[in-house]
Amino acid sequence: MIFRQLFDRESSTYTYLLADITNRQALLIDPVLEQCDAYLALLSQLDLQLIYALDTHVHADHVTALGRLREVTGCKSLMGKQSEVACASGWFADQDQLNLGALQLQVLYTPGHTDDSYCFYLPEQALLFTGDTLLIRGTGRTDFQNGDARAQYQSLQRLLALPPQTRVYPAHDYKGWTSTSLEEERRHNPRLQVPDVDAYAELMANLKLPNPHMMDVAVPANKACGRAD
């Protein structure tokens, strides 16, 4: 397997490149529009064919590269079916599987941060791409885009039921951390130390965070596959 973790400094977004080393087919998770040229250059350098571009959810802090990548490479742009993004090439749902040569990416519906939030799991490689559902020492906020703290609590329990050694790769980190494990988060993530769903809902209700500064631009653009017009 070919694996790269890429970073957009402006939005603190991680994008993930996965590829089968034999047939050279690749996918990108959570690509950022401003980094599109860098993705295309890397694909060319590694002699990879982009098959899929995926978003874990409709992002509020950056504009997606899904539409642009589809235009340039002919890849399929995929979103969760709850996103209602009509311009996508297709939609995934819970328990779907995306095949990329020998790689089998399992699709997990994990609502809470938004009502269209998904995670992607590679069981053989023990890799979990958590979007904004589970962050390193944190979790995604639940106060807009039909977020629901109680739903997120249940989604987190589902993730924590996976093997504890599973490596976690989130969509964002604001401290420079790159990855973690489910066991590490279970032990040290303060938002996972609450006793029950009621306590988690109360914790999330009292965060009082400002809206992302790009929210009014990013959300409508991302519902149009990255186009602001």
UniProtKB/TrEMBL annotation:
Classification via Pfam families: Lactamase_B
Keyword Metal-binding in record: yes
Signal peptide: none
Keyword Metal-binding: yes
Keywords per UniProt: Metal-binding
Domain of life: Bacteria
Listed SUPFAM superfamilies: Metallo-hydrolase/oxidoreductase
SMART domains from the UniProt entry: Lactamase_B
Residues covered by the Metallo-beta-lactamase domain: 12-172
Protein name: MBL fold metallo-hydrolase
Naturally occurring in which organism (per UniProt): Simiduia curdlanivorans
Source taxonomy: Bacteria, Pseudomonadati, Pseudomonadota, Gammaproteobacteria, Cellvibrionales
